[in-house]
Amino acid sequence: MDEAKADLARIARLAKRGSDSAAIAELAAISKLASTTSVRKAAKTALEARAPAVAAKLASVFKGAVPDRDDSLTQKLRELEAVKFPAVPVFAEVLARRGAVALSYVCAVGGALCKRVLADQIENAKLDLRFVKPLPDELSELPIRSLDLTRCGLVELPASVLAMPRLEELDLSYNRIRRFGPEVRRMKALRKLFFMDLPLVDLEHLDEIPRLRELEMYRTRIKTVPEAFAASKLEALRIVQCHRITQTPPAILKMRSLRVLELAQCRQLTEIDPGVYELSNLEYLDLSGAKLGDIPPAIGKLENLRELQLRSAGVTSLPAELARCKKLHTIDLVLNPGLTPDGLGGLERLPALRRLRIKDTGLAAHWTSIKRKLPRVQLFD
Known about the structure:
This protein has 381 residues and is of the alpha/beta class. The chain has a domain at 1-122. 29% of the residues lie in helices and 11% in strands. The protein is built from 8 helices and 12 strands. It has helices at 2-15, 21-33, 37-64, 71-83, 90-108, 111-122, 159-162, 367-373; strands at 126-128, 146-148, 169-171, 192-196, 214-218, 236-240, 260-264, 284-286, 307-309, 330-332, 355-357, 378-379. The chain has a 12-stranded parallel β-sheet with strand order 1-2-3-4-5-6-7-8-9-10-11-12. The protein is elongated, with a radius of gyration of 29 Å.
């Protein structure tokens, strides 16, 4: 009994020392090693009471931390682990501002803190690691859903990224990846993949990512889309300024789940296969930069189409069958000088049409008369 009283008195003295590191460590030891339940419980209660003070000190240390190594920062993280502090709002800010440096500090204290504090703070956050070289191995421990790895000097996907359990969105722009390997199938949660200015020569194996639904690429070296994608469940495919594509990839014509298709500004792609107009689930279609001439009547089959982008596509006329696209609310016709009021087809019979862009077309000079036929339509820049 006397021993217990002495321990409780000792706990009381330690509790008065606030966020003192030695006091925190001693309280943590008592909470685990004391011989009586009441003493262990008292020490635990004292630790929990210290948590806000420790968090405040942690925040101040973070703000003054040296961007390389800072032993005091790691020590404060260990103190947080000792007091079982469930959530520290400063973590989200620190991760956003200090990237991999703070990330490594946070992960250094071990799994428990990572899984508890980080899961609370950044589960739905986007982790921005642009320009970070090398990437920290601790990435695989984090429940991050969105990750930006722009300009990280990558020639392949690191194992730590492949192992991220909840990663849903990934940006790989401005790296040096030429090909993806079969290991990409390990990214079981990935739904959206974006990259710009990769020296990528093909899309092999990307169809093996089980939950991939959005694939977006700008300025790559690909020539086509592998036939394996025909069986994929992609809902959005954006291929922009990929100048080695010379024809509509046949696989696209079989991708019945597509809701968004962008085949835009690909200089060598001068014709669009009419099979594109058979993709009945399309809601957004962008064929900007192609040489389309007269839009074929088959476009009327896209009855779910909501937005049509035809910038600088050599459009000379729109067919009357376009009126069958009852959900179409936005059309962009900029930079089609050969399009005149005589080529507007059934535009006035589109009940949902609200936004029209006609700058640098043969329509601009006739907008007053066109407006009478389209009283609900607004021009947009």
